[in-house]
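This part of the workshop introduces the protein records we will be handling. To make this concrete, we reproduce a full record directly below:
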Amino acid sequence: MHRNLLPVLSLLLGTAFLLAGNGLHGLLLPMRGTEEGFSPTSLGLLGTAWASGFVLGCIFSQRLVRRIGHVRAFSAFSAMIAIIALLTGLLVDPVSWIILRVVTGFSLAAAFMIIESWLNERATNETRGLIFSLYMTVTYVAIVTGQMSIALGDVKQTTFFMIAGILYCLALLPTAVSTATSPAPLKEVRIDLKLIYRNSPVSFVAMLMIGIANGAFGTLAPVFGANVGLETITIATMMSVTIFSGALMQIPAGRMSDRMDRRYVLAGLGAIASAAGLAIVIIRPENIGILFGLIALYGAMSYTLYSIIVAHANDYAANDQFVTVSSGLLLLYGIGTIIGPLISGIAMVYGAYLLFAVTAAAHLAVAAYAIFRSFVRAAVPDAEKEIFASTPSARSATPESINLDPRATTFED
């Protein structure tokens, strides 16, 4: 078993470099853009552009990979991402950055799918759970490491653009020397949004709303931090706190949703996330401890919703629909992340704190609709529920990571 995991570890190392580079680059651009005086709307469009490219990459990159092969495709996409990271340091211009972010999003989606298909190929029934857990751990740790590294220097210099490019290039090395066999061709993504809505209207609406909230926060929280006078290290820590608090809350909230109607859990999490956002808008805390407390509460609630929504949708789905349903929900999340940064960027023209007014409205919509549907449709009996399982960070999830989930094989057997 340990011998079989060695190629997997090299693939996970490549994933770590990709995610660290993405964490660094994704935080660097809005912070540098704020220093350059870019408008909140143009900075919001950076997130919209990245999410648009990522969604398109999840849907269309399979054809290119099948044509040129996994190794060459991964090398090409990684090189493209590295080149763009360097170009954004040379072309400090909002229009150029927006265009380049579309290409980055597409290329990252393709690169993630290639690595995840390799991991799928190496996974067996005995090792799939371990590999999936390692993948989730690598995802969270690498993103946070990339974000926190920005505290070590000055965002007004070109150094971090070069470091991001180096990290993307380093992602090539583990896969180049890996002994993992070339996997089967990537599967076409089957998307049936009508099926998703018929299956679970709550999951449909809630996933779109949290995509809006998380897309807005992930892109523009650094801009908010800079505009309210936070230092670079404080902004990086703020972004990392939301990720870790969400990761820590997944299991407790998930276990609670196994014991009661998941819609009540979604409503509770959404209501508390909304309250935390509104508190930031109203109080406008100057004390860092209070701000971080509210941010941690926000992250613990908001970044837990995705996994519970997936579990709720699959409570109603047929056994062979796990991948189809989860892929459709992922697309809805991606659509939300396209919308959220644009709306928030426009709102923040009138004040940095309005970022949290947008997220609060989205989370309140989740809570209200979940409660409404609880009066319309009976809850799934506890005995028929899918057991909750955590999922990787939705920001980097692709249809191939859904195939890696042990539930994908369990439900189809």
In short: The mean pLDDT is 86. The CA atoms of residues 121 and 306 lie 26 Å apart. The two ends are 23 Å apart (CA to CA). Residues 2-35 form the longest helix (34 residues).
